Amino acid sequence: MPRTGYIPGYWSIRMNKEAGAHVSKPILAVISCAAIAVVLGCYAEEALFQRAFFIMDHSLQNYPFRHYVSTCLQEGTSPLWCPYIGAGFPLFAEGQSGVFFPLNFITAILVSGWKNYSLQVLLTLALGALGMVLYLDSLKLRTAATFFGSVVWCLNGYILTHCMFINLLQTCMMIPFALYFIEKLKEKYTIRVTVLLTVSLCFILLAGHPQSAFIALIFILPYYAVRVKPLPATNRVTCLIILTAAAVLLSMAQLLPSLTLFADSARQGNWSFERMTEMSLPPHFLLSMLMPYYYGNPADSTYWGGNFGYFWNSGCIWGFFRCS
Question: Which pTM was predicted?
Answer without folding.
Answer: 0.84
